[in-house]
Design a protein that fits this description.
Number of helices: 7
CATH class: Alpha Beta
Strand order of the largest sheet: 6-7-8-3-9-10
Helix content: 25-40%
CATH superfamily: P-loop containing nucleotide triphosphate hydrolases
Number of strands: 10
Largest sheet: 6 strands, mixed
Length: 233
């Protein structure tokens, strides 16, 4: 039987996050403990201010917890230097946000190539993989266009291709359809699910929409910075 640890993409224990406020601090997350399994699609849901985005930022190594432990692919994150954290983030984690954050001065192809170039891959290799990804998600004819010439849904698909560029073990999506109409958002969600399954990637989707959350393998409900419920499969 495989070791349980190898099936975990991420393990968080008692994560607490405080931010400076006035002369003191305010605690946003109060001891979050969760395991994310390889290939699992998890929805994080809760009211505004529950701490959903803060938790996602901790899991994605964009913020450091005030206390607690975090392991990604078996690596203890706390002991890493900022440079090592950045390398781990680029190697194992893909991000998809409500706003696509594409660089307007670069072409669609160049935007998608970025994670590969940061990783140290050659321009030729990066361009070939980016073009293949864009073809997979239906944007073959848009490689050399600037992002601003595309529709909102197309821009978000480009952002998804960029998130998948390094074959991440962990894909984090923060309200990925929040800026799109229902039909366009549905197309992005379908791609997000398909590509996560195809790669056996662990996906975490922050959403305020129950209908999106119900499609996930598991729903984690946050309220006031704590996990209210997290049923199994």
């Amino acid at each position: 039987m495989a070791d349980v640890e190898t099936a975990l993409t991420l393990s968080a224990q008692e994560l607490i996050k405080r931010f400076p406020q006035g002369d003191g601090e305010v605690e946003i997350l109060h001891g979050i403990t969760l395991d994310l399994n390889e290939g699992e699609i998890v929805a994080i849901i809760g009211p505004s201010g529950a701490g959903k985005s803060t938790l996602l930022h901790l899991l994605g190594l964009m913020e450091q917890p005030s206390s607690g432990t975090l392991k990604i692919q078996g690596v203890e994150v706390q002991s890493l230097s900022p440079k090592e954290r950045a390398r781990l983030r680029n190697e194992y984690i893909g991000f998809l946000f409500q706003f696509h954050h594409l660089l307007p001065e670069l072409t669609v192809l160049e935007n998608v190539m970025l994670p590969h170039r940061i990783h140290g891959s050659s321009e030729h290799q990066s361009a070939a993989q980016a073009a293949m990804l864009l073809d997979t998600i239906g944007l073959r004819g848009h490689l050399h266009k600037k992002p601003m010439t595309l529709s909102g849904g197309e821009q978000q698909r480009v952002a998804l291709a960029r998130a998948l560029m390094n074959e991440p073990a962990l894909l984090l999506a923060d309200e990925p359809t929040g800026n799109l109409d229902k039909e366009t958002g549905e197309g992005v969600l379908k791609l997000l699910w398909e590509e996560s399954r195809r790669r056996n990637a662990t996906a975490v989707i922050v959403t305020h929409q129950e209908e999106i959350a119900r499609r996930a393998d598991r729903i984690i409900r946050l309220r006031d910075g704590k996990i209210e419920s997290s049923p199994g499969h």
